[in-house]
């Protein structure tokens, strides 16, 4: 399992995602006689009642800065699992670590590293920046950018060391990627940080598996409504569809945005761009999303006029994003829709440049 951990989410949930990572590996925190966090300890297999799960953890820069003891905790948990004298079929952490150790002739400490993040002082995976600027040609470019930025492993000492080959190796064994959603105010299409990290690791997993078309599924754990820690787990496809319907296509939402004028239109454009980011990194956005976004914001002349009057620059970007989604084969509109979308984009470009001669100008 590839698990994305953010600092703020762990602070708000009192370490919920950290606990998930420990539980998957079959470990738990160890405390000293004063009740202070001292490290990790294994849960024996008989008590655990199942095999351990190999977990590759990617951290945000904020997590690295705020929670150094927790980084050491997670690193020790992985090392203890890899060191345990247990049947290999019950302990994939050890099985994978021993295989890497034999292949690369390194020590077990290195082979068991499972906590990855940025180098000191660096933040983000830069995948969001590439998508925002449309400055990428193939998915491998996104995967390479992610891996270079997040290829620093953190061991029991808490110090980062570049381990790009190890990251590629552990990602090749990943069956699914997962992240919790902790805020009712922010969704996976609200800010680019979600697809930058969770989407980025998904693309890196695909490349590590040899570019397989069978992409590892991505899951979102919605922890925003259940106060007892249960939450709801959705596929990324389901989560994007839910947010598209309840926000982007919901008149209450977009009319509320438009009341904010210039910034409201920019927020609409941000959602469209982030949706494109999920297509770029996971391919798990359904084509109807782009169709309905086009019909709602670009193919309705009245709505298009409102957007252009409030924020001509963001309006052009919305049209260009939808056309980019077509060009990158994320959806296939019929000829009439495509031509109408192109004409809408050209009209908005003309308005931005001050040469539009339509009604009301």
Main β-sheet, spatial strand arrangement: 7-6-5-4-1-8-9-10
Q: State the end-to-end CA separation.
A: 55 Å
Element order: H for helix, E for strand: EHHEEHEHHHHEHHEEHEHEEHHHHHHH
Mean pLDDT reading: 92
Q: How helical, in percent, are the residues?
A: 55-70%
Label the overall shape.
elongated
The major pleated sheet works out as: 8 strands, mixed
Uncertain segments of ≥5 residues (pLDDT<50)?
A: none
Structure in words:
Helices cover 55% and strands 12% of the residues. The protein is an alpha/beta fold and 361 residues long. The strands form 2 sheets. The protein has an 8-stranded mixed sheet, sandwiched between helices. α2 (16-25) runs parallel beside α5.
How are the SSEs ordered, and which strands pair?
Elements (H helix, E strand, L loop, with lengths): L1 E4 L1 H6 L3 H10 L1 E5 L5 E6 L2 H4 L7 E4 L1 H6 L1 H16 L8 H13 L3 H4 L3 E3 L9 H6 L6 H12 L1 E3 L5 E3 L1 H8 L5 E5 L11 H16 L9 E5 L9 E4 H13 L2 H8 L3 H21 L4 H12 L2 H10 L1 H16 L7 H19 L8
List keywords for this structure.
361 residues; alpha/beta; 8-stranded mixed beta sheet; elongated
Question: Concise description?
Answer:
This protein is α/β, with parallel strands linked by helices and 361 residues long. It has helices at 7-12, 16-25, 45-48, 61-66, 68-83, 92-104, 108-111, 127-132, 139-150, 164-171, 193-208, 236-248, 251-258, 262-282, 287-298, 301-310, 312-327, 335-353; strands spanning 2-5, 27-31, 37-42, 56-59, 115-117, 152-154, 160-162, 177-181, 218-222, 232-235. The longest helix is centred in the C-terminal third of the chain and has 21 residues, at 262-282.
């Amino acid at each position: 399992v590839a698990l994305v951990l953010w600092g703020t989410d762990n602070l708000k949930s009192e370490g919920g995602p950290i606990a998930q990572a420990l539980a998957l590996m079959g470990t738990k925190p160890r405390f000293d006689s004063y009740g202070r966090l001292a490290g990790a300890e294994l849960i024996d297999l008989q008590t655990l009642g199942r095999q351990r799960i190999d977990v590759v953890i990617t951290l945000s820069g904020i997590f690295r800065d705020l929670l150094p003891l927790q980084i050491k905790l997670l690193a020790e948990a992985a090392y203890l699992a890899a060191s345990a004298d247990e049947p290999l079929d019950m302990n994939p952490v050890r099985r994978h670590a021993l295989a890497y150790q034999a292949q690369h002739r390194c020590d077990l400490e290195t082979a068991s590293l499972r906590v990855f993040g940025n180098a000191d002082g660096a933040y983000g995976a830069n995948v969001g920046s590439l998508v925002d600027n449309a400055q990428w040609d193939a998915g491998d470019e996104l995967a390479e950018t992610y891996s270079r930025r997040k290829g620093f492993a953190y061991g029991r000492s808490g110090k980062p060391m570049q381990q790009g080959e190890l990251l590629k190796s552990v990602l090749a064994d990943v069956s699914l990627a997962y992240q919790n959603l902790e805020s009712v105010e922010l969704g996976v299409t609200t800010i680019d940080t979600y697809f930058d990290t969770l989407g980025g690791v998904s693309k890196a997993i695909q490349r590590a598996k040899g570019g397989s078309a069978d992409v590892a599924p991505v899951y979102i754990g919605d922890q925003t409504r259940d106060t007892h820690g249960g939450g709801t787990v959705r596929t990324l496809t389901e989560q994007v569809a839910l947010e598209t319907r309840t926000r982007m296509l919901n008149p209450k939402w977009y009319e509320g945005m438009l009341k904010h004028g210039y910034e409201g239109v920019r927020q609409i454009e941000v959602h469209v761009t982030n949706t494109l980011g999920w297509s770029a990194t996971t391919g798990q956005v359904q084509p109807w999303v782009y169709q309905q976004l086009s019909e709602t914001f670009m193919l309705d002349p009245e709505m298009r006029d409102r957007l252009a009057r409030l924020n001509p620059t963001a309006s052009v970007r919305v049209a260009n994003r939808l056309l980019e989604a077509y060009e990158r084969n994320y959806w296939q509109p019929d000829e009439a829709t495509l031509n109408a979308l192109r004409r809408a984009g050209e009209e908005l470009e003309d308005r931005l440049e001050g040469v539009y001669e339509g009604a009301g100008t």
